[in-house]
Fold each of these.
Amino acid sequence: MSEGTNQRRMRLQQKICLQIILWLWFDNILQDVSGGTRSKTTSSVDVNLMFEFLLGGVVIDQDSNVLLLDKEMASMRQGREFLSQINDDIPKSLSSMSLMVSTLEARQKTRLTQSEFDNLVLSMVYSAHQAQKSRDKREAWGGMLLQLANITVYELRGSFLFSS
């Protein structure tokens, strides 16, 4: 199989993985809102806004800061809070992401807070973006995305997608 075919297949797997995780995340939030099972600081409106921010498009500048392409959304108070969360609380290097993964895997018995869970999902979004953007590190960022997805599925459903 050619390298181009492998890269296309990996990109497709990453997109499918991210779509599944986002679906599970939104499904989990909706179940939590209706059932009141998870104490959280994020309302369903905040989740919907976060999704709108991501759909509006993002770009990562040379300092690894995430910027919203929709200037109107970026100027909203919630947009500024979202940018603050993603720029201040999300690891931006493979080594710091790997450390976060190790930390999260070590505490499997303890449920994540809503803020930690949001940061986990945003880390997946950042990793997916980096895997699409960085040709020379695509495989490494793609692998990181799969590890984060595995932890997210464990957090949502109590079992891993695959064993490490």
Amino acid sequence: MRSKTGNAALLKRAITSSLAAIGVKETEIKFTGNKIEVPLCGVTIAPALENGKRVWKAESTYSVMRLDDAFENEVTHQLFTVALEDDMLLARKLALHIAVTKIDASLDSVVIESAGRLQR
């Protein structure tokens, strides 16, 4: 497997293919200029400069609601960085992150469902 491509078409193919393997459709992925977004999971990937090196920086954005007034604040969390030329590693890390998130959400729903049954 060749991991360093620098080819935009191959990067797009690698990302769509790796995400398809975990059930994310190509239509759920947005490629805009140099930015890659998976709105379903709140993940955005864009080129950045970190410690003088060019990298892909993956961030997750989610909302947190305050209890006192129900106002929502948006929080952005850095997930990982990958060297800009390492397209296959980027696709792999993105797919793994989304897969783990989907698994956690599924398990959370089981816990919530179980808690609801105990209260009856």
Amino acid sequence: MEWCQINDLTAATIASVVIAAFTIALFVLQWRQHAHARKIARANYQLALFDKRVQLLFEIENFLAKFHRDGRPSADEAIILRRKLRNAHFLLPEEGMILVDEMVKKTAQWEVAHSVWEPLRARAWAKEELSDEENSKKEGALKKMHEIQDWFWKEAAKRIQENFEPYLKLPPSV
């Protein structure tokens, strides 16, 4: 009978050790699955963020394409761009939105210079004599318009890459 009690005790001990080993194995398996699920969720988050950021970039490039087509920034297009990117500060840090703010600001400056230049140009075209001050204002407005157009031609395309490249990186793998 004593031999039977030792066997029962040994069997209970072995069963307890086996159960503990299975519990530890299940814990490790669950932990690895959780870690993998977190990795996948992070990759999905980065992909979704990338998609949203690329959409912002496409909107900016569309604005610039219209500038290149027309040769001047359009106030209507700047308003549309600002409306489409109104929530972009949730997707990009402040540095990423500096270019957009500057593009909208430069468009407004171009429109102001154009509103000064156009009536004076129309009067001069109609052979009306302009005063020296009006000629100076007309030339100054035209110079300002050209400076802004040069900025769009030279600076904007270069700055798109500088401002957006750090935020448009995907992880090489999951």
